[in-house]
Structure formats: structure tokens, C-alpha cells
Amino acid sequence: MKVVQLFDGETAHRLAVLVAAIDLAPRDQKPDPFVLRTSVFGMDFSNPVGLAAGFDKHGEAMGGMLKMGFGFVEVHSRRQAPERPTRAAHSRCRGAGCRRVTRWAA
To answer: What percent of the chain has pLDDT over 70?
Structure first.
């Protein structure tokens, strides 16, 4: 993957997704050892190592990533239009004092 180092981070990311989407990514040739099998909420996985949703935001490369050996691949859902961030504030009280927590919610 040294060729990826020639590009900036965003371009390298797009290239990696494209390579996996068109099924040119390297494939895991060996089956996962049985000891790695796991079950969560009724779903069975060949191994516990997964790919986070932020990598493949539009579900373009799921098949390629699974073939590379990931036990599972998370994908963001698509929205028709981006949501505008809203400012949300709430108070959280613990013990003798309270503190105000402000966060940005998408």
C-alpha cells in the first residue's frame, strides 16, 4: 500500500474505498480460526475485528472490505439532505455540584 502514501489523506481514503468497491482490494485467503468466532445480539461473526462506519459512509465497499477479512463492516445511512447542526445544552448533576454540559448535536 505504499502507493497510498503518495496522496493526501482524503484522496488516499477515496482511493481505498474505490479499490474495495471495484473488488481490487487484497483478499484474506485463510479462514478465521474458530476461537475468534463470536456472537452478539444473535448475529454471528467470524472474528471480532470490524470496520467503523466512518470509513465507508455510503456503503460502496462493503463486499470488498468483508473479503479483506473484517468480521463486520458498519455503514452510515444516507440522508436526503445534510442536517443543520443545532446547539443542545443540558445540566448533569452529580454529588454536591452541578455542571452545565453543552454539545453540538447533528
So the answer is: 70
CA distance 15 to 18: 5
Do residues 90 and 83 lie in contact, with contact meaning Cβ atoms separated by under 8 Å? Answer: no
Give the H or E element holding residue 88: strand 86-94
Burial class (CB in 10 A: 0-12, 13-18, 19+), 96: exposed
Which residue reads 444473535 in cell numbers?
42
Distance CA 34, CA 47 (A): 9
CA atoms of 27 and 67, how far apart (whole Å): 5
Question: Among 71, 73, 68, which residue's Cα sits nearest to residue 28?
Answer: 68
Residues 47-72 have pLDDT tens digits of 999 888 888 888 888 889 889 999 88
Give the dihedral of Cα atoms 48, 21, 83, 74; nearest 10 deg. -10
